[in-house]
Design brief:
With 153 residues, the protein is an alpha/beta fold. The chain has helices at 37-52, 65-74, 95-98, 105-108, 122-138; strands spanning 19-22, 27-30, 58-61, 79-82, 90-91. The chain starts with 18 loop residues before the first strand and ends in a 15-residue tail after the last helix.
C-alpha cells in the first residue's frame, strides 16, 4: 500500500488507490477501487488490522456502500463514512462543500459527487468580502464607530 500525504482526500487523490492515511489515533482507508471480491476482502482485512492495531475508529472514504456495510458489521469500533453509503456508524462531509462556501470555479471541479449541498452561502460570503474590501479601500472602514476602546488614565 502507498501512503500519500495525510491532507489528500479521495477527490484530490485521483489516480491513487488502495492506500491508508495514518494519523495519531485514526486511520483512514481511502479511495479503494473495488471491481471484484478480492479487493473488497482487502478493505475488510485492512479495517480489521486497523482495529487490531488499536484505532478508536475507521473512516471509510469513497468506499462502495456494500463494502462499508460489511466493514461496519464486522468491526467493534465505529465506522465513519464519507462517500461510503448509509450503512456506516456515522457520516461526515466537508462543511465548505455542503454549504456551498467556495465559489471559485476551480473548486467547483473538485466538489465530490457524494456531497449533498444544503445551502449556497458562498455567494453571500463573496459579497460580504467584496463590501469589506471596498470599505477599507475607500476609507469607510474602520472609523471611530468601530473603535470603542478608550485609553484610561
Amino acid at each position: 500500500m502507498r501512503s500519500p500525504p495525510c491532507h489528500l482526500s479521495c477527490h484530490e487523490a485521483d489516480g491513487l488507490q488502495n492506500f491508508i492515511v495514518f494519523s495519531p489515533d485514526l486511520i483512514v482507508l481511502v479511495q479503494y477501487l473495488v471491481y471484484e471480491a478480492a479487493q473488497a476482502r482487502m478493505i475488510i482485512e485492512d479495517a480489521l488490522a486497523v482495529q487490531e492495531a488499536g484505532a478508536f475508529a475507521v473512516v471509510l472514504e469513497c468506499v462502495p456502500s456494500p463494502v462499508a456495510k460489511a466493514v461496519t458489521e464486522l468491526l467493534k469500533i465505529p465506522t465513519i463514512g464519507i462517500g461510503a453509503g448509509p450503512e456506516t456508524d456515522g457520516q461526515v462531509l466537508v462543511f465548505h462543500d455542503l454549504l456551498g462556501m467556495l465559489q471559485h470555479p476551480h473548486h467547483a471541479q473538485f466538489v465530490p459527487k457524494f456531497c449533498k449541498r444544503y445551502a449556497d452561502v458562498g455567494e453571500q460570503i463573496r459579497i460580504g468580502l467584496e463590501n469589506y474590501r471596498d470599505d477599507v479601500e475607500s476609507g469607510r472602514f474602520s472609523s471611530e464607530a468601530y473603535s470603542p476602546y478608550k485609553v484610561c488614565m
